Amino acid sequence: MKSSTIIVHIIAWLIAIIWILPIVSIFMVAIRPIGEVLHGWWNFKEFHPTIGNFIEALNHPTTPLGKGLVNSFIIASFSTIIPIFVAALAAYGFARFSFPIKNYLFLFIVVMMAMPQQMVAIPLFQIMINLGLVDTYFGLILVHTAWGLPWIILFLRNFFLTLPVEVEEAARVDGASDFQIFLRIVLPTSLPALLSVTALQFTWVWNDFFLALLILYSPSKLVATQRLVWMKGKYHTPWDTLCAGAVLIMIIPVLIYALFQKYYVRGMVGWVIKG
Amino acid sequence: MSQKNITTPLFFIVPAVILITIFVIYPILHTLLLSFLSPSGKFVGLRNYFDVLGSKEIINLDRFTSTYPPWGALIHNAVWIAIHLPSSILLGLFFAIILKDVKGASIIKSIVFLGMVMPMIIGGLMAVFLFDKDIGIVNVFLRFIGLRSLANLSWTYWPETALLATILTGIWMWAGFSMIVYSAALATIPREYYEAAEIDGASSLQKFIYITLPLLKAPTQIVVVMSVLYELKIFDIIFAATMGGPGEASTVLALLMYIEGFVAFNFNRAAVLAALLTLLTLPPAIWIAKTAVKRK
User: Fold this and answer.
1) 20 to 30 Å CA-CA from A78: which of A203, A272, B167, B197?
2) How far is CA B151 from CA A21, A28, A219, B253, in A?
3) Mean pLDDT of chain B
4) Do residue B1 and residue A97 have CB atoms under 8 angstroms apart?
5) Is the distance from CB of B225 to CB of B53 less than 8 angstroms?
6) Buried/exposed code over A226-245 (b: 16+ C-beta within 10 A; e: otherwise)
7) Are A157 and A110 in a shared domain?
8) Which member of A97, A154, A257 has the closest CB to residue B8?
9) Does any CB of chain A come closer than 8 Å to the CB of residue B262?
10) Are residue A41 and residue A115 in the same domain, yes or no?
């Protein structure tokens, strides 16, 4: 090995160590009794790993994280399946048919994906009250659906454009309807793209804080991210339960990333970068 | 496959359009309307805008000569961009280049990318945790290199350091984005370019300047625009770390909008803040939308 190659490898692994240190910090505090880490988790004179902090976070007296994780899972699941189906329909409409103002409408929808959510916060709260959906999972799922649509439509439309139309035309000659073609041919062939949007949309909803903050306020309904913030406390910060809670919340998105890495990255940058 | 009748495309598109109209477009227009009304509902033109832009929470002119915040939420967003944008982009580019020919690069990339994967709210807690005077790993490092006065501060509790702590945490979280984009871009540059240059006797630096850099223009534009959007809309990190404090030393537009609207119930002022934030995000939003629509 050339010496320059060795230096590059040393720098690369130094980067890795520096970048993982914050996560290691959280993990170390999460798995050790608070007494051991009060003067730094890097002291290993005493080292008694425990799952006590995790159990404490899950059963926290005022904001039990266990319930929050269940709520987040329910909300993220529906907020992934529904927008993907609705967006896939729209994306197919944009990819395969022409109609007046199509291009303007499409660009307009795509611009919405970058809007700050603060711009809808106050009226959205009023809409939710009027529809009787404030403080309900269904209300939050509807909002996540609407906010997920623009980027999923964009991503799937760009993917549908790369599919050969001949297959769909052959099916049409055989008498299949447009909806049948969409359901039986287009969706199954788009599995890689659907995996990308599933991985990302689920993660984003799981990680969301602002929309949940607007719509859910009953203690029993709060999602995991909300509970973690309320656990922090104003004057006293219980780092043991907080770090354990952070690890528990992180597990799901990290698992999704680990399992679907290729699709995840493609979903994140595939629509702007080729490769 | 262009169709003459319009009912088929409508069938596909209408459900999405209805949902976006009710939960995105209508509320945006309503917020815009609120920003021109007085609390009693009278039309007051741009008066709310002048009020908000003239208030200390947004731009604190009195403190401009001071070396530390609060300078006002709008300025804090600008500081976010001024520090976070170049740092995260250059780090990402550096990582992408370093990791190009390293064994185990995919593991290292995954580690750097972890910050992009986790909830931003945890990032906010990390800003408190990492810069804590007792249990913060950053302060251990500072003590090690002799910066004792900084190391003995819990950064998020002091106006001098709170904003910076959130920005630095933001860099840790976001560097993975530019790294991934640049890595994807670097992978598309054919090896033959470099081989041909080597035959002509080009040095590593020359290869970088004449081959790599020009091809990084497009990905750089994308990273810059996406990063600016991220920095303008920053909310979760600050909410969890400092709630804008101490004494407004780390507020940003998005957080101030939430506080005005949902803590102080000044809906019209909150609407103005939201509209100003939207106005700032609109140019990058339109640019990225146009770019993405063109790609197939």
Assistant:
1) A272
2) 17, 21, 38, 29
3) 91
4) yes
5) no
6) bbbbebbeeeebbbbbbbbb
7) yes
8) A97
9) yes
10) no
- Minimum distance, in Å, between the CA of residue B65 and any CA atom of chain A: 31
Q: Is B145 on the interface with A (CB under 8 A)?
A: no
Contact status, residue B19 vs residue A84, Cβ threshold 8 Å: no
Find the CATH number of the domain harbouring A82. 1.10.3720.10
Three-class secondary structure of residue B214 per DSSP: helix
Among A173, A203, A175, A177, CA closest to A92: A177
pLDDT in tens, A22-52: 999 999 999 998 888 888 888 888 888 899 9
Tell me the mean pLDDT in the region B15-37.
Answer: 96
Do A27 and A119 belong to one domain?
no
Contact present, B170 and B92 (Cβ < 8 Å): no
Q: Which domains does chain B have, with CATH numbers?
A: 35-294 (1.10.3720.10)
- Whether A26 sits inside 8 A of B129 (CB atoms) is yes
Q: How far is the alpha carbon of A53 from chain B, nearest alpha carbon, in Å? A: 17
Interface residue B264 vs chain A (CB under 8 A): no
Q: Is B275 on the interface with A (CB under 8 A)?
A: yes
| Spatial CA neighbour of A116 closest among B228, B105, B53 | B228
Give the three-class secondary structure for B202: coil
Output the CA–CA distances (angstroms, integers) from residue A106 to A91, A111, A116, A150, B41, in the order listed: 9, 9, 19, 9, 34
Helix residue ranges, H only, chain B = 7-20, 26-34, 47-53, 73-98, 105-117, 120-130, 137-144, 148-151, 162-187, 191-199, 204-207, 213-215, 217-232, 236-241, 253-262, 267-294
Tell me the pLDDT tens digit for each residue of B264-294. 999 999 999 999 999 999 999 999 999 888 8
Please name which of B1, B13, B11 lies closest in space to residue A167, comparing C-alpha atoms: B1
Q: Number of Cβ pairs closer than 8 Å across A and B?
A: 303
Q: Comparing C-alpha atoms, which of B233, B215, B243 is closest to residue B281?
A: B233
Q: Is residue A56 part of a domain?
A: no
pLDDT tier, A187 (very low <50, low <70, confident <90, very high otherwise): very high
User: What 3-state DSSP class applies to A31?
Assistant: coil
Residue A110 sits in the same domain as residue A229: yes
Given a cut of 50, is residue A103 above it in pLDDT? yes
Tell me how many domains chain A contains: 2
Range of the domain at A70: 64-269
Question: Position B46: which residue type?
Answer: L
Model ipTM over 0.85 = yes
Do the beta carbons of residue B48 and residue B274 sit within 8 Å? Answer: no
Q: How far apart are CA B207 and CA A21, in angstroms?
A: 34
Residue A272 near chain B (CB below 8 Å): yes
Token readout for B61 is 């002119």
Same domain, A119 and A181: yes
φ, ψ of residue B37 in degrees (nearest 5): -110, 155
Assigned domain for A94 exists? yes
Distance CA B156, CA B133 (A): 10
Q: Minimal Cα distance from B172: which residue of A?
A: A19
Report how far apart the first and last C-alpha atoms of chain A are (Å, whole number): 30
Can you count the helices (H) and strands (E) in chain A?
Answer: 15, 0
